[in-house]
Amino acid sequence: MVRRLLFVSSLLAALLTVPAAAQQQVQLSIDASKPGAKISRYLFGQFAENLGRGVYGGVWVGKDSPIPNTRGIRNDVVAALKELKTPDVRWPGGCFADEYHWRKGIGPAAQRPATLNATWGNVIDTNAFGTDEYMDFLNQIGSQAYVSLNIGSGTPEESAEWLEYMTAAAPTALAKERAANGHPDPYQVKLLGIGNESWDCGGAMTADYYLSQLKIYSHFVRNMNPAQTGNDQMLRIAVGPGTPNTEWTEAMMKAHQRHSWSWDFNGLSLHWYTEAAGWPPTAPSMKFGVDDYAKLLKSTLFMDQFLRGQEAVMDKYDPKKEVALIVDEWGAWLAPLPGTNTQFLEQQNSLRDAVLATLNLNIFARHADRVRMANIAQMINVLQAMILTDNEKMVLTPTYYVYKMYVPFQDADFIPVTFDAGTYTQGSVTLPRLDAIAAKDSSGKLWLEITNIDPEKPAVIEIGQTGFTAKAAKGETLTAPAVDSINTFAAPRTVVPKPIAASLQNGKLTLTLEPKSVTVVSLEQ
Ligand code: AHR
Q1: pLDDT tens digit sequence for 123-160
Q2: For residue range 473-495, what is the model confidence (pLDDT) as tens digits?
Q3: Distance from the CA of 300 to the center of ligand 1, in angstroms?
Q4: Residues 10, 414: Cα–Cα separation, whole Å
Q5: Distance (Å, rounded) from C-alpha 431 to C-alpha 294?
Q6: Is the torsion defined by CA of 58, 63, 69, 72 positive or negative?
Q7: Which residues are catalytic?
């Protein structure tokens, strides 16, 4: 019996002290002498469509709610989003934008009409959360407006008046109406989306028809805020592609190359979701195994190829990269949670979502010279959310923690890294085992993110730097017991970052990454 115990304990010891080679030792070099493009903070934007419980319940609970709120907006959600330094929130859609009529959402709440949200589930919309509430929410979280115009069922006049209501400083009738609603100062509208998926839910337009609309809206829908000049000027975002086909982008960029003084756009939007097995999305967001993990991550890596295809066309017509590529809808679109309204697009968020988010954010960072903005879909309770709520309860998802860990990358300079990613194979799916990016912030600190995709094997990383002598290092890592681990209202801390031991010797940093983990470390000189 004793002999058997001794045998078992020595076997355990052998398993726990995995030799370095078996732990997948990798050399990674960071070349701080060759900074690349700025990783715009706008790559970390959010999207809050008037859809399901994204806004109503997620952000807005009303002034009389027992849920702690400031002028109707949830305090817990505001506090959580402030931590992310969210640069902008896109609203009111999505497909919903092309049926939104802004006038129904201003003025005394009791006088606002109830309408039907025909885009998402035919549910009653009280219009209690309208333009002034959106601006209040942005102000509370310290974020910029990204307003999507209704060009599908609205008119240029309606949109022009909306911008006048929001931005006019001069005492026009609409500016006075805004003041009467409690907001004498003009708002800033940093980003203006001219339509949404106009080739589909936004009016099923051809590229030529959309271009004719774009020219009208980009000319007549004016930002009247005198403070919005120079770097603060409003940027116009045209509808771009939603499939890898490049015809739409070709038409937009060809026209843009010859644009006149009277119309313009500064960005082209791109939408692409990770679905794994086609449409409608059937991949479960809970209770899945490593096969589903590998399949979804394989599918998400297509983002890189998608961007390259569109960028090649943009480079042809805009070699100076004046027009930004804006990925203003992306993320995992999974099967709706059983028992929920399928039109509300509710899904759980697991460690797999965290890994998926880092892979996409790293792709965007590597394309930072052209991709200068991205908005994950969607902020709360919808698709790949940062936050889930249930009445007074709130939980932060694994994706939320990725966004928090990436805050130092906002507006930092991209720094090239080289390493042998190796491979991880699961059934018929082969993926790179590792992914990494680095950046240098304005204080001179180096930041390194490394993802160990492999769900079984740890990875030992030896990090060397050129153009930078590291004297101190610290970091945190996000992992969990299983690829489908989630945070719940009852157990909210299953997937949260924890400190990682970083050993620094003669300027060389060694890290041991846990399997299926996301790690961010800072290096100081
Ligand atoms: O994010 C959900 C929907 O996906 C948006 O409304 C639409 O733009 C896209 O098709």
Answers
A1: 999 999 999 999 999 999 999 999 999 999 999 999 99
A2: 999 999 999 999 999 999 999 99
A3: 17
A4: 46
A5: 8
A6: positive
A7: 197, 329
